[in-house]
Amino acid sequence: MKIIIIGAGIGGLTAALSLHKCGFSPVLYEAAPAMAPLGVGINVLPHAARELIELGLSEELRAAGVEIDELVYRNKWGRQVWHEPRGLAAGYRWPQIAIHRGELQMLLFRAVQQRLGVDAIRMGHSLERFETEDSGVVAHFAGHPAVQADIMVGADGIHSMVRRGLYPQEGPARWRGGFLYRSTTALPHRLLGGRSMLWAGYASRKFVAYPIRYDAATGNSLINWICDLGHGQQEREAPPRQDWNMQADREKFLPAFRDWQWPDVSVESIINASGVVYEFPMVDRDPLPRWTFGRTTLLGDAAHPMYPIGSNGATQAIIDGRALAFCLATAKSPDDGLHRYEEMRRPATARIVEMNRANGPDQVLELAELRAPGREDDLDALFPHAERKEIADGYKKIAGFDPATLNARESFDPRPGASSGP
Ligand SMILES: Cc1cc2nc3c(=O)[nH]c(=O)nc-3n(C[C@H](O)[C@H](O)[C@H](O)COP(=O)(O)OP(=O)(O)OC[C@H]3O[C@@H](n4cnc5c(N)ncnc54)[C@H](O)[C@@H]3O)c2cc1C
After folding, report:
1. Is residue 256 pLDDT above 80, yes or no?
2. Whole-number mean pLDDT of the chain?
3. Which 3-state string (H, E, C) describes the chain?
4. Residues lining ligand 1, judged by CB closer than 6 Å?
5. In the CATH scheme, what is the homologous superfamily, with its name and number, of domain 3-172+285-408?
């Protein structure tokens, strides 16, 4: 069966490795002329770390990223609103890894080249249009001959050409108002405990920071940070340009965080000491009623772009790739495999898109701000701990990383007994 994947991002590359492990020989077509480590930090949550570890990438993943062991939520006064262990410390069989997006992409790219061969990735191939039928697909690339395949997987990200081909009337992404400003800062010390994720503020003024490199001996850290500003603004009609590489001026957002100075964290200093800052509007798209048409399906951001809340963007793309391979390898026919993949992943990811629109796990911060905005407000009386726990646990269940369920779930590897621990 000839399978082609459009887009060699996190989802496309993982899908290729997963399909290969199941005995297929997929070919990736990527628009970029060469692979380059773009982006800043992302999180690989335990349910995605599991999939990469089961693909045999444990060593590379752990070497390139940082194992996170706690999540700390604070209000704008620096007071702790929520704390929970993460990764192995939370009882998962797999770690949570914070990593530079570009390094993860390069790691996956090298693995594809080593395992599938250099010919398995065709760079400089931008999909222009395609025809999908019950028996196969024809893909047309700018400046290259057309390619025929039995199955085509659209893993071409938030601006997906494949999705546009399937839904020509869909229009632009939904903008909630507001931007994410992202960068990295080298710190000559630990951020909190060293392997900590810090989430502070509330929906329309939020600061997120976590290490993507950490030297436990010296404490030296490379911190990925995000300022999420104005995300509670009224939704506007037309979203601004969505370019992952668009640079931003600090003065657009720094004033909103200048007074966030706490004994152990100075948000202003972290922002001021950073490298280039990138901006991206807070956009997503409505969940689709259908992903598969003929022999074409969608995966990752092409299928379910979501607000980057709860660290699920890359994680869900990785899981899609593994689920697709599992379904195709165990199905009666290609159509049955595509059908089962969609059944498994479309409703699950739609729930996360919806949940992220309601602030996902960050609803804890939002309610803390709404109910106890003053420095001296009695947070515990106004926002009981049990309610905070309910939000945190509920999100994990919906996003598929409730520890007990994940630890007990069968592997996506079709070989019996293939599940692996840390
Ligand atoms: C350059 C870049 C930087 C990013 N930086 C961040 C970041 O800092 N933080 C963050 O949270 N998320 C970032 N993301 C998004 C993040 O990677 C995704 O949200 C998540 O990993 C899901 O991955 P995906 O494979 O579905 O999409 P992506 O990782 O976006 O990959 C899509 C791939 O498809 C390719 N492509 C697009 N159109 C075509 C076409 N017509 N033909 C062929 N190939 C095509 C793209 O070049 C890209 O390589 C970035 C994405 C990109 C492309």
Report:
1. yes
2. 93
3. CCEEEECCCHHHHHHHHHHHHCCCCCEEECCCCCCCCCCCEEEECHHHHHHHHHCCCHHHHHHHCEECCEEEEECCCCCEEEEEECHHHHCCCCCCEEEEHHHHHHHHHHHHHHHHCHHHEECCCCEEEEEECCCCEEEEECCCCCEEECEEEECCCCCCHHHHHHCCCCCCCEEEEEEEEEEEEEECCCCCCCCEEEEEEECCEEEEEEEEEECCCCCCEEEEEEEEECCCCCCCCCCCCCCCCCECCHHHCHHHHCCCEECCEEHHHHHHCCCCCEEEEEEECCCCCCCCECCEEECHHHCCCCCCCCCCHHHHHHHHHHHHHHHHHHCCCHHHHHHHHHHHHHHHHHHHHHHHHCCHHHHHHHHHHHHCCCCCCCHHHHCCHHHHHHHHHHHHHHHCCCHHHHHHCCCCCCCCCCCCCC
4. 6-12, 29-32, 38-40, 42, 101, 125-127, 155-157, 159, 161, 182, 244, 300-302, 308, 313-314, 317
5. FAD/NAD(P)-binding domain (3.50.50.60)
